[in-house]
């Protein structure tokens, strides 16, 4: 009798919630089911349920491709492709120096791949210029947490802790669409009337606060910092602080109080549109739930809505200040957290693909860190380069005098997801060599000189670190298509062709062992872990999890309970006043554009636009317009609308809805071509984190008359460069 198919325990390929899945191979295809786990409790969202479809994408890349003299991209062998890449990289390096080769990574890569990519850049290419799309995603929260709390772990507590809290302040996060199974953890706060959502849109998440479940504060886009300073004002002025906690566990509160004193509620209302009444109510809800008043617990959480801003680090800093003033951080049942976005956004930033970091969350300019990592890599610390350029600066420098001439892309679709994306396409086109590793012909792969087909998700082994700092096993459930290869193998082959020092493992378990050694003693210490231990233990382990001589370290679900990893063991109030968004609205561009996500699509859409069920449910770029604004411009639902900023224009179908403010339009960024929101967004960055201001820019809105050129679906197949010129949304 045939044995029933074995279910493989794994996790979703998409977001940082990393919902647990059970994958079963049936008649050559993978079937996905939800699996019980504390974060998702057996649930999956529509993307998770349909995730196996990407394994069968009709245009899945299965052979290396090289652009020939005619400009057409043609199939070639792996040897020919790798030989060509190595030869061109050597030429560029010899002529322009090692920093002329740059690397762009992704927060979707496994820990093993993120680690190996950082090592490959530093000692096989010898370049300082490596950064990744996490710069677009988490960097402001990271910078603020490091400054205030001494370490960045998105949620320094298990997600399930949220369930016990009576108040949760959720700033700029649309969890109901971006992590639907996580909404269950807001139930306690909703039942207590304490879910407070701050979003310029009545998003699906903001609507969870309706009907007595909480409050929706709907500020002018880009004014979260004044909102937070106003909340702090009320907390200080009305004696709602946890004075004992502030005295014992923090420094700098007086500076924060002084700044907040200048943001009295009437001033906040004038700047943000959030009423004094709402502001006070929100502060009192939070205070009443906080431990110093005997409440059941309160949380302050931030998402991309407040972080993707030119003052994102300052804004997250103010959110942390509020949590510190109320005595929430480092207390069981209360806290501050940033909701990590990408599947391995957390691990992706710990293991060395960020321009200023080495594995284990070590800083690249710290001599002790360099010595430790060099020892693991078997090289002289002197050969490890210093800090490279952060993502937006790196992309802008491509092909310019003194800038990189070659770029290797692993796990990002920059032509759709980078700010001011048409400019990014111009910079990519100015390169001598663009190499893209992907699983599908993404819009960025369509522009490459060499495309390498790599493995995805259920085709390989590895680990991911979820939004709560838990290390999870990703397991292989299906054989990859013949012709696709693991990126670990690609780097080992290139390292050998480039004559790189060091050992280049291709087995993910061995790479993990090396990563664990490299992380030992660092802030994100994985040294007590191995694939074998993670396989043996049912529940995944939170870092830090250092190696021990005896009983294995149990991992650290909650940080900061005793002290903070700062020089004096205290958390710091870091103070910065509001300077407003970089681009103010005015007569020439009177409307705010905010951008974000829809439930069905993931990021640049490279994966989800290829899933028929998701593309059917959410087929085209759209723009949300308030009825008053629509009326002013003669826009009817379904009209084609053009949204224009100083960078460029995008076209999308109008959805007329009072979910947005009359002064604001909203576009998701999941589509390419003329429907791409990032043709319009601003690539100005936060001075501390390098995070671009995706969320707010100034635009005009106009209805396009029907004589506009006919529309054609954005190409998802084909690799000809001409394919993109006529893309328009339908
Ligand atoms: N369906 C889906 N889920 C995803 C992803 C996806 O692409 N699709 N991506 C994953 C990743 S990488 C990430 S980073 C997370 C992102 O998860 P979220 O942070 O929840 O996602 P966004 O939709 O980008 O932004 C959240 C909200 O910010 C609001 N916003 C815009 N401007 C402002 C502002 O000035 N102030 C405030 N307070 N809010 C503002 C938007 O209206 C939006 O509702 O989602 C993850 N999950
Ligand atoms: N306007 C606007 N723009 C935004 C945002 C926003 O809110 N508004 N959000 C920003 C945020 S938070 C993020 S995280 C970025 C994300 O934007 P991107 O970096 O473009 O993210 P993805 O679309 O996930 O791209 C990942 C690519 O890697 C491929 N891939 C999947 N798995 C692997 C693998 O294992 N190896 C390799 N080599 N490739 C793989 C996928 O097919 C896809 O082409 O977008 C940012 N852009
Ligand atoms: S919420 Fe995120 S991890 Fe969970 S199923 Fe959806 S995309 Fe996957
Ligand atoms: Mo993200």
Automatic annotation (TrEMBL):
Entry keyword set: 4Fe-4S, Iron, Iron-sulfur, Metal-binding
GO molecular function terms attached to this record: 4 iron, 4 sulfur cluster binding; metal ion binding; molybdopterin cofactor binding; NADH dehydrogenase activity
Gene Ontology BP term (one): respiratory electron transport chain
Domain called 4Fe-4S Mo/W bis-MGD-type: residue spans: 5-57
Annotated spans, Disordered: 710-730
Protein name stated in the entry: Assimilatory nitrate reductase (NADH) alpha subunit apoprotein
Gene3D superfamilies recorded: 2.40.40.20, 3.40.50.740, ADC-like domains, Dimethylsulfoxide Reductase, domain 2
One CC-aspect GO term: membrane
Domain of life: Bacteria
């Amino acid at each position: 009798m045939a044995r029933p198919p074995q279910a493989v325990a794994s996790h979703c390929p998409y977001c940082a919630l990393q919902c647990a899945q059970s994958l079963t191979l049936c008649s050559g295809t993978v079937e996905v089911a939800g699996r019980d786990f504390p974060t998702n409790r057996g649930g999956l969202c529509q993307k998770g349920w349909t995730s196996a479809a990407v394994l069968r994408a009709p245009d899945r890349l299965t052979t290396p491709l090289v652009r020939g003299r005619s400009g057409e991209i043609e199939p070639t062998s792996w040897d020919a492709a790798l030989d060509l890449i190595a030869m061109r990289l050597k030429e560029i390096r010899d002529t322009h120096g090692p920093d002329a080769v740059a690397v762009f990574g992704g927060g979707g890569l496994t820990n093993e791949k993120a680690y190996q990519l950082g090592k490959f850049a530093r000692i096989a290419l010898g370049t300082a210029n490596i950064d990744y799309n996490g710069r677009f995603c988490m960097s402001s929260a990271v910078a603020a947490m490091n400054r205030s709390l001494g370490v960045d772990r998105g949620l320094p507590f298990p997600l399930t802790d949220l369930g016990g809290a009576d108040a949760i302040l959720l700033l700029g996060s649309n969890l109901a669409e971006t992590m639907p199974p996580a909404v269950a953890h807001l139930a306690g706060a909703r039942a207590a009337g304490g879910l407070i959502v701050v979003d310029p849109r009545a998003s699906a998440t903001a609507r969870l606060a309706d009907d007595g479940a909480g409050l929706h504060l709907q500020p002018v886009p880009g004014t979260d910092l004044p909102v937070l300073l106003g909340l702090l004002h009320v907390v200080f002025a009305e004696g709602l602080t946890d004075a004992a906690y502030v005295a014992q566990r923090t420094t700098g509160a007086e500076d924060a109080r002084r700044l907040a004193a200048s943001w009295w509620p009437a001033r906040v209302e004038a700047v943000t549109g959030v009423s004094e009444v709402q502001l006070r109510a929100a502060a009192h809800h939070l205070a009443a739930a906080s431990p110093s008043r005997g409440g059941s617990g309160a949380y302050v959480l931030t998402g991309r809505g407040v972080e993707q801003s030119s003052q994102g680090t300052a804004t997250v800093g103010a959110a942390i200040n509020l949590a510190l003033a109320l005595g929430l951080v480092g207390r069981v049942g209360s806290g501050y957290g940033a909701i990590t976005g990408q599947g391995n956004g957390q691990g992706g930033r710990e293991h060395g693909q960020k321009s200023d970091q080495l594995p284990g969350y070590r800083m690249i300019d710290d001599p002790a860190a360099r010595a430790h990592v060099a020892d693991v890599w078997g090289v002289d610390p002197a050969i490890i380069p210093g800090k490279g350029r952060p993502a937006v600066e790196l992309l802008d420098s491509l092909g310019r005098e003194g800038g990189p001439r070659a770029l290797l892309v692993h796990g990002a679709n920059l032509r759709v997801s980078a700010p001011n994306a048409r400019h990014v396409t111009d910079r990519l086109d100015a390169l001598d060599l663009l190499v893209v590793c992907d699983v599908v012909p993404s819009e960025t792969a369509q522009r490459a000189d060499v495309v390498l087909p790599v493995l995805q998700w259920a085709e390989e082994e590895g680990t991911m670190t979820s939004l709560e700092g838990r290390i999870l096993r990703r397991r292989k459930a299906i054989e990859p298509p013949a012709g696709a290869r693991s990126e670990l193998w690609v780097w080992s082959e290139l390292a050998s062709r480039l004559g790189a020092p060091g050992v280049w493992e291709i087995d993910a378990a061995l790479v993990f062992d090396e990563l664990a050694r490299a992380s030992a003693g660092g802030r994100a210490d994985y040294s007590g872990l191995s694939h074998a231990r993670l396989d043996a233990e049912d529940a995944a382990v939170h870092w830090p999890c250092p190696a021990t001589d005896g009983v294995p370290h149990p991992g650290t679900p909650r940080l900061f309970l005793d002290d903070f990893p700062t020089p004096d063991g205290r958390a710091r109030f870091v103070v910065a006043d509001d300077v407003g968004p970089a681009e103010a609205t005015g007569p020439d561009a009177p409307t705010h554009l905010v951008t974000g996500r829809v439930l069905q699509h993931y990021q640049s859409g490279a994966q989800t636009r290829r899933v028929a069920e998701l593309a059917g449910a959410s087929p085209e770029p759209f723009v949300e317009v308030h009825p008053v604004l629509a009326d002013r411009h003669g826009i009817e639902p379904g009209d084609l609308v053009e949204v224009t900023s100083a960078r460029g224009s995008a076209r999308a179908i109008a959805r007329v809805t009072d979910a947005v403010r009359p002064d604001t339009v909203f576009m998701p960024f999941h589509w390419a071509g003329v429907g791409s929101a990032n043709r319009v967004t601003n690539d100005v960055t936060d001075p501390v984190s390098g995070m671009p201001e995706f969320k707010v820019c100034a635009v005009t809105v106009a209805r396009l008359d029907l004589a506009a050129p006919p529309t054609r679906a954005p190409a998802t197949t084909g690799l000809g460069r001409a394919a993109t010129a006529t893309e328009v949304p339908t």
